[in-house]
Specification:
mainly alpha, 17 helices, Cytochrome Bc1 Complex, Chain D, domain 2, 3 domains
C-alpha cells in the first residue's frame, strides 16, 4: 500500500509539473544541481556504446578529405563551435548547455566516436544529426577535419564570402578527391542536380547545406558559371593501367548482370549523351557515386540503380580508374 501511495503521489506530482508549467524551462535558470553531470555522463556512455568500432575508421589524413570537411564545417558548424583559435561569441556562451569551442569539443573523443556524434547529433543540445541518410562518406570528411583540429593541423576556414560563386568555389575548383569537376558538365545538368540536392531527391548533407545557403533564384546562374569555369584543382594521375583496362572492358562490353556504361555515358554519333559526362571526372568522386547507386542510397533513377546494383568494389574501382583517365 505504501509503495502504491508513493507511486500515485509521484505520478500526481509529475502531472502537475507538466500540466501547470511548474518546471522552469528558462535557459537563464539552467539545470537543477546534478542534472548537468547526469546528462553529460549519459551522453558519454551512450556514444561509447553506439559508436562504430575503431576498425571501421578509414584513413583520415588525406588533404582533400580534410578540405572537404573543412568547407562544410565553415558554414554548418562554426556558428555554434567557432573556428580554431576563435573566441566564443556572446550568443554561444549564453546557450545552455554551452556548445564547447571546437578544440575543446574534439579533445576527448576518438574518431569513431566523433563519427557517431556528427551522424546522429545529440538530443536537447541543438546539435543536429546529419541531414542525409546513408552518407557516411560525407560524415567521415567532417571527422577528418575534426581530427586535423586535434592534431593542430587544420586548414584555414573560408568563413565569409560575399558572392555565391566564391562560396561554391571554396570547394569546387580548389578541392579535388571526392569533389566533382563541374566544367565537364552542362549547365542544364548542373542546375537539375542543384534542384535535386535542394529538394532532398539526391541525398547529400554537404550539398543540402550548400544549396540552401544561396538564393534559389541564383541556381541557374551558378550552374552556367561553373559549367564555363575551368577547374583549377589538381588531380593525381591514374597510375594503375591494368585496373583502368579492366574498367574499359566493363564500360564497353558490360557483363550478364552489368550493362555497358558507354551506352548512356558514351558520346553518340550526334555528339549527345543520355547521361552526364564521366570522361575526366575525378576518380574519388566516381567511386563514391557508384557505391551510392549500388547500395541504393541513390534511388531516384531506377535505371542507374539497376545498372550499378551488381557492381563489386573491384568493378567500381576499375570503372572509376577508366573514366578518370579517359
Amino acid at each position: 500500500m505504501t509503495l502504491a501511495a508513493l507511486a500515485a503521489l509521484g505520478l500526481t506530482g509529475a502531472v502537475a509539473v507538466v500540466a501547470l508549467g511548474l518546471y522552469n524551462v528558462s535557459a537563464v535558470a539552467g539545470h537543477l544541481p546534478g542534472v548537468s553531470w547526469v546528462l553529460h555522463t549519459t551522453f558519454r556512455n551512450s556514444v561509447w556504446l553506439r559508436a562504430p568500432s575503431e576498425e571501421e575508421v578509414p584513413e583520415l589524413d588525406d588533404a582533400e578529405l580534410v578540405a572537404l570537411g573543412a568547407g562544410h564545417y565553415a558554414t554548418a558548424c562554426v556558428p555554434c563551435h567557432g573556428a580554431p583559435g576563435q573566441e566564443a561569441s556572446a550568443t554561444m556562451r549564453a546557450m545552455v548547455p554551452e556548445p564547447p569551442q571546437i578544440e575543446e569539443a574534439v579533445a576527448h573523443w576518438e574518431a569513431n566516436e566523433l563519427f557517431w556524434i556528427v551522424e546522429n547529433g545529440i538530443k536537447m543540445t541543438g546539435m543536429p544529426g546529419w541531414p542525409a541518410e546513408g552518407r557516411d562518406d560525407e560524415v567521415w570528411a567532417v571527422v577528418a577535419y575534426l581530427e586535423s583540429v586535434k592534431g593542430e593541423a587544420a586548414p584555414e576556414l573560408v568563413l565569409e564570402t560575399s558572392e555565391p560563386e566564391e562560396y561554391c568555389a571554396s570547394c569546387h575548383g580548389e578541392v579535388g578527391g571526392q569533389v566533382p569537376r563541374l566544367d565537364i558538365l552542362s549547365a542544364a545538368y548542373l542546375e537539375a542536380q542543384l534542384q535535386a540536392y535542394r529538394s532532398g531527391k539526391r541525398p547529400s548533407g554537404i550539398m543540402a547545406q550548400a544549396v540552401t545557403s544561396v538564393p534559389e533564384e541564383r541556381l541557374a546562374e551558378l550552374a552556367r558559371h561553373f559549367a564555363e569555369t575551368a577547374d583549377e584543382a589538381e588531380e593525381a594521375p591514374v597510375a594503375d593501367a591494368e585496373l583502368a583496362s579492366k574498367g574499359e572492358a566493363l564500360a564497353r562490353e558490360g557483363t550478364r548482370d552489368v550493362p555497358t556504361c558507354l551506352a548512356c555515358h558514351g558520346e553518340r554519333e550526334d555528339g549527345r549523351r543520355k547521361g552526364p559526362v564521366l570522361d575526366g571526372q575525378r576518380r574519388g568522386f566516381l567511386e563514391v557515386q557508384l557505391t551510392l547507386w549500388r547500395d541504393g542510397i541513390y534511388d531516384y533513377d531506377p535505371l542507374m540503380h539497376a545498372a550499378a546494383r551488381d557492381l563489386s568494389d573491384e568493378d567500381i574501382a576499375a570503372l572509376a580508374a577508366y573514366f578518370a583517365g579517359r
